[in-house]
Amino acid sequence: MKLVIAIIQPHKLDAVMHALDEKEIYLKTVSTVLGCGRQKGISEVYRGVREVGNLIKKVRLEIAVNDNFLDQTVAAIRNAAQSGKIGDGKIFVLDLADCVRIRTGERGNEAIG
After folding, report:
1. If residue 109 lies in a helix (H) or strand (E), which one and from where to where?
2. Helix pair 13-22, 70-81: axis angle to 10 deg
3. How far apart are the first and last CA of the chain?
4. Is 40 within 8 Å of 54 (Cβ atoms)?
5. Is 73 exposed, middle or buried (0-12, 13-18, 19+ CB in 10 A)?
6. What domains does the chain contain, in order, with CATH numbers?
7. Tens of pLDDT along 78-111?
8. How many angstroms separate the CA atoms of 14 and 16, rounded?
9. DSSP states of 26-82 as a string?
10. Which of 34, 51, 80, 93 could form a disulfide linkage to 19, CB 3.0–4.6 angstroms apart?
11. Contact (CB, 8 A) for 86 and 8
12. Is 86 helix (H, G, I), strand (E, B) or coil?
């Protein structure tokens, strides 16, 4: 089991969600976050509003997947979020020690689905 954490541009969220749905990856958590990387506070225009400062709006996706879904999950995110410009984001893959479905008590791969 793996936990995929992706930090992407907010305007790429719809494309990423669609790409994940096409790969039948439905269990996602999405958060709005602030962060900075190599952009180092370079101003950027998002939906007509110029944002300046060292923290830029991003979207964080967290997706728990079984090992056989890992490669297609990462590929779907990368292909949908990539613009080729600085600030496209990052994908982190972590080992997931356990998962418990609260409703049924299932654990591990069965709990993820």
Report:
1. helix 109-112
2. 150
3. 11
4. yes
5. buried
6. 2-112 (3.30.70.120)
7. 999 999 988 899 999 999 999 999 999 999 999 9
8. 5
9. ---EEEEEEE-STTTT--EEETTEEE-SS-EEEEEEEEEE-GGGHHHHHHHHHHHH-
10. 80
11. no
12. coil
Encoded tokens for 107: 């654990």
What mean pLDDT, rounded, does the chain reach? 90
**What amino acid occupies position 93?**
V
What are the φ and ψ backbone dihedral angles of 76, each rounded to 5 degrees? -65, -45
Q: Is residue 21 within a helix (H) or strand (E), and if so which, with residue range?
A: helix 13-22
Measured distance CA(83)–CA(88) in Å, rounded: 7
Record the tokens describing residue 49, joined without a space. Answer: 């509003």
Burial code (b: 16+ CB inside 10 Å, e: under 16) for 88-105 equals ebebeeeebeebeeeeee
If you search the block for the tokens 């039948």, which residue do you land on?
24
What's the pLDDT score for residue 85?
86
